[in-house]
Design brief:
CATH class: Alpha Beta
Helix content: 40-55%
CATH superfamily: H-NOX domain
Oligomer: single chain
Distance between the termini: 31 Å
Largest sheet: 4 strands, antiparallel
Order of helices and strands: HHHHHHHEEHEE
Organism: Archangium gephyra
Low-confidence stretches: none
Structural class: alpha+beta
Number of helices: 8
CATH architecture: Alpha-Beta Complex
Protein name: TIGR02265 family protein
Number of strands: 4
Shape: globular
Length: about 180
């Protein structure tokens, strides 16, 4: 996955406690630790997806003792990623437009698997992730939180995940609603 997500995760860690990024990095095997050093990261570099989600899992469990804490982290990280320019552009888009472009957004983040969104009425969608390489509880929650942030950047209000389900190894769905 692209390095900018890990850079945003580090920023969130540092805003909680400046020692957290180093505390987390100590858990990475020494031979791989150099690739997650802050000075070695670039926003456009591809990193193993496991590094980022290991960090999200570690912080979610540290803050909430649950993989569900990754929903809030995903929302915060995506909000940082969207930034002022995209937030302005997306504020003119509808939630449906954002969701229909989600496959393109996906390829900006990940070089594997896919996500497909299907609209459900005027105020909901079902998002399906296929061929996801990790078999963990945290990454689906983080992605659900990211989707909340992307939809909130459009004109949607009261965005919430109403269902999150692993349907098969490497496949999961989440339902999202808004007003």
């Amino acid at each position: 996955m692209k390095g900018f997500a890990l850079m945003h995760l580090f920023h969130i860690m540092e805003s909680i406690d400046p020692s957290l990024p180093d505390e987390w990095r100590k858990l990475i095997p020494e031979r791989q630790r150099a690739s997650v050093e802050k000075r070695a990261l670039t926003s456009t570099a591809w990193l193993p997806v496991e590094f980022y989600f290991h960090g999200v899992n570690w912080l979610a469990h540290r803050l909430s003792n649950s993989p569900r804490g990754a929903v809030e982290l995903g929302c915060q990280i995506a909000s940082r990623d969207i930034g002022a320019f995209f937030r302005f552009v997306m504020s003119m888009a509808s939630p449906a437009t954002v969701l229909m472009l989600s496959g393109r957004f996906w390829r900006s983040y990940f070089d594997q698997s896919s996500m497909h969104a299907t609209l459900v009425g005027n105020d909901g969608a079902l998002c399906e992730v296929r061929d996801w390489p990790l078999r963990d509880e945290t990454s689906p929650h983080e992605m659900a939180g990211s989707m909340i942030a992307w939809i909130e950047a459009s004109r949607a209000k009261d965005v919430r995940i109403t269902r999150l389900e692993v349907t098969a190894p490497g496949h999961f769905t989440f339902a999202v609603r808004w007003r």
